[in-house]
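Supplementary notes for students who missed Thursday's class. We covered one full example, reproduced here. Read the sequence, then the structure, then the short commentary at the end.
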Amino acid sequence: DEICLRRLSALSPQDIASYRDRMLACDYAPATVVRRLNLIATAIAHGRREWGMHLPSNPAEAKLTARPKGADRKRGRRLQPARVEVTYQRDPDTGNEVELSHHIPAEEERLMAGLAASKHGAWLVPMAKLALETAARQGEICALDWSDVDLAKRVMTIRGLSGDGSKNGEIRKVPLSTAAVDALRSFPSYGNKNGPVVGEDQRLLKVTFGHVVDRAGIADLTFHDLRHEATSRLAKIYTNPLELMRITGHKTLSMLARYYHADAEELAQRLA
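Structure (token representation):
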């Protein structure tokens, strides 16, 4: 991008704003644009603080360069239950409209069936089940080593891709439900004392998951949405938010709230 031709000493908020607008014009998501602007702001702040860069202000800071709207939109995608879809069709003999009922299976059922039928289903099915039981991220599951899994104590240690901590830089221990233990035992690599739990490339599995979702006709679902679903399910068990945060790895209640999505019917059932 042309912003790379600008000297830091001459960089202005207008340059950053123009870069922002070019990214938006190229259909980058607002959240992606914000992450890039924040990265630039962080790099400049480090240079000013640690390397003595002489800039009167940080042109990429949010107070000088506005962030695009919609970047902080809360995503609330959850797996939908089974439903009955009603359509109407005209009877060619009588000319009357006939009501037809179609049973639409639950999205979780359709997802698991699609994953099982895929080329990498042996890995993706237990991965999806484990994600729904533990709220672990895809990268965290792919980084698991069998030495991190204690099925006797029913505890899984999440260390992240670096081995030094997950996305927020912390190592956490996650309790395993019976379904989570069953999911781990169904991995093709089960039985190894050491070595990776997932024996396939994460990028390949991510692409395959997307293809399965498309073929199953499940709209707007990503693997990360399983973390949203799992957090909402676990909240019914761990009603203390501090306990729930220990499992999901969220550092603040505000971040936890972005992943907890109880619908109105579910909340109404808890009322006396």
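Commentary. The beta strands are 83-90, 97-104, 149-150, 155-158, 172-175. The chain has a mean pLDDT of 88. If anything here is unclear, bring it to office hours.
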